[in-house]
Design goal:
- Two copies of one chain form a homodimer.
- In chain A, helix 6 (99-115) runs antiparallel to helix 8 and helix 6 (99-115) runs parallel beside helix 9.
- By secondary structure, chain A is mainly α.
- Chain A is built from twelve helices and no strands.
- Chain A is flat and about 60 Å long.
- Chains A and B meet through helix 8, helix 9, helix 11 and helix 12 of A and helix 8, helix 9, helix 11 and helix 12 of B.
- Chain B binds a DNA duplex (30 and 30 nucleotides) through residues 26-27, 29-30, 52-54, 62-66, 68-70, 73-74.
DNA sequence: TTCGCCCTTAGAACAGTGTTCACCATTTGC
DNA sequence: GCAAATGGTGAACACTGTTCTAAGGGCGAA
C-alpha cells in the first residue's frame, strides 16, 4: 500500500524543492476514516484473527499509540467498521404491494456487502444497529414490514429474524471458507467432494436421512440455499397478515 | 473449588496413615474431562473474553503446559465444550402427527442449554455439529422434518435455519446481558426502561415505526419472542408440505 | 526390591495482543 | 521570536496461545 502524497523519509528532497515553501503537507494527517480504511485492508488480507491494532498501525506506517488519539479502543474501531457496512445503502420507500420483494432485496444486499470483506459476518454478528447512524435503516425496514400488513408484534420480530438469518447464513459461509483455507483444499469443488465422500462412508442403516440429504446440505449453490431461506421466513411472516376487511 | 480426595501438600499425613500403603492417589489425575469441567467453571465466572488456558490451568492448580497433553489447542478445548452441550439429550423418534411440536421442543431445549452457561451461544455459533459424536443428532433432526412431509430441499435447509435462529437469538440475548453488565445497570428492568427512554427521545416524525414498536422489540418476555420466532419459521416450513394424495 | 522407561507435569521462553504513559517534534497563534 | 497546543513516538505493563527442555512419578521387567 503506497501512500500517495506521502514522502519517503529515506529519500531526501532535492534542493530546489526544499526552497519551495510548503509544497504539500509532508505527512497525510491521520484520521479516523483512514484508520478504518486500513483496518479493512488488514482484515481482507489477514482475516479477523490477525486483525490487530499493531497490524493496522503498520499498514499506515504509524505507531500503535497514534491510533488511540482517533479511536478509543479496538472495540470502537470494529463498531466503525460495522457502521460503514451500511454506507451508501438505503432502503426504498415502502411499497405495500411488493413488500416481500423489498425485503428480499434488503437481505440480498446485506449478504453481498458482508461477503465483500473476509470475516465481516463475524464482526457484524457481534453488533447491533441501534446507533444514531443506523437507526434510520431500522426505521425504514420496520416501515416496509408494517406497510405489508404484518401485525406489530410480528413486524417487531421480523427485522431481527431477517438480520439474524442473513448474518448467520453468511457467517457459516465464511466459516466454511476458513475451513477450506486451513485444509489447504485447492478449490471449493474439491472441498465439497471431500465432504460428500465422508458422508458416503457413514453406515447407511444409521444415517439414512443424512446420506439422502447430504447432496442438498452441501450444495454447490449457496445463492439458491439463501433464497430458499428468506422465502421460508417470508412465507411464515406472510401467514400472519390478516385479510383486509373491505369497507 | 476444593478437590475432594486431593491432599493438601501443606498438611503432612499423620504417621499411622503413612504406614498404610497407598491410601488414595495423592493427586487426582488430570484428564480431558476435568479440563473441560474447569473451562466451564472459568467461563461461567469470567466470561468468554477472559477464558484463557492460564485461567483454566489455574482453576485446576496445574501448569498451563500440562493442559496440552490432553488437549491439543484452545480451539480443540472449545470444540469439546461445544460437544458437551448435547450430552444427555436425544431427539425423539419422529412422530409425523406432531413434528412441529417436536421441533419446538428441540429449539427450546437448545436455547435452555445455551443459556445455562455464560457466553455459550458465542462458542456454539462458531461450531458445526458435523463431528462423529454429533452426527446422530443431526440425523434425528432431519428424520423429524422428513417425517413431517417437507420436501428434501426444504428439510435440508430446515435444520440449519432452526439452529441458526436458535443460536442467533440466544447470542443476542447474551450480548444484551453483557451490555447490561458493562453498563452497571442494576437490573434488567432498569436496563429496559433506559433503552425505552432513549427511544422516546427520538424525533417522532422521523422514527414513527421505531417508536411504535420499541415496546415490542425490547420486550420483557424473551420467551414469548423466541416462541414467536420458531412459530414463524415453522409456518414457513409447513407451507412447503404438499397435500398427501389419497390412494 | 531395584532398574529403567515413559508418560505426565513444571517452568521458562517466544512471539504476539490491547492499552497507557511520559516524552518530543512540529505546526500554529500571538 | 516565543509559547502553546496538537498529534505522533517508543517503551512499558499485563496479558494471550503455544512450545521447549527438564524434571518428576508410577509402572512393568528383571
Amino acid at each position: 500500500m503506497s501512500e500517495p502524497g506521502q514522502a519517503d523519509p529515506a529519500v531526501p528532497s532535492p534542493p530546489w524543492e526544499r526552497s519551495r515553501k510548503r509544497v504539500a503537507p509532508v505527512r497525510v494527517p491521520l484520521t479516523r476514516e483512514r484508520i478504518i480504511d486500513a483496518a479493512y485492508t488488514v482484515l481482507d488480507r489477514e482475516g479477523y484473527e490477525r486483525l490487530s491494532m499493531r497490524q493496522v498501525a503498520g499498514e499506515l506506517g504509524v505507531a500503535v499509540s497514534a491510533l488511540y488519539a482517533h479511536v478509543s479502543s479496538k472495540d470502537e474501531l470494529l463498531e466503525h467498521m460495522y457502521t460503514r457496512l451500511f454506507d451508501g445503502h438505503s432502503l426504498p420507500d415502502p411499497d405495500p404491494e411488493h413488500w416481500q420483494e423489498q425485503i428480499k432485496d434488503f437481505a440480498r444486499e446485506g449478504r453481498a456487502r458482508l461477503l465483500r470483506h473476509r470475516d465481516m459476518a463475524r464482526i457484524s454478528m457481534a453488533h447491533v444497529p441501534f446507533t444514531p447512524e443506523l437507526l434510520p435503516h431500522v426505521e425504514r425496514l420496520l416501515a416496509i414490514f408494517r406497510a405489508g400488513g404484518l401485525p406489530d408484534a410480528v413486524a417487531a420480530a421480523a427485522g431481527d429474524m431477517m438480520s439474524t438469518f442473513m448474518e448467520g447464513f453468511t457467517f457459516e459461509e465464511s466459516m466454511w471458507e476458513e475451513r477450506r483455507r486451513n485444509t489447504e483444499a485447492a478449490s471449493w469443488k474439491e472441498m465439497r467432494s471431500t465432504i460428500k465422500g465422508y458422508f458416503d462412508t457413514l453406515p447407511p442403516e444409521r444415517f439414512p436421512n443424512l446420506i439422502a440429504l447430504s447432496g442438498m446440505i452441501f450444495d454447490d449453490d449457496n445463492d439458491a440455499r439463501f433464497e430458499l431461506g428468506i422465502e421460508i421466513i417470508l412465507r411464515g411472516l406472510a401467514s400472519y397478515i390478516e385479510p383486509r376487511t373491505q369497507p
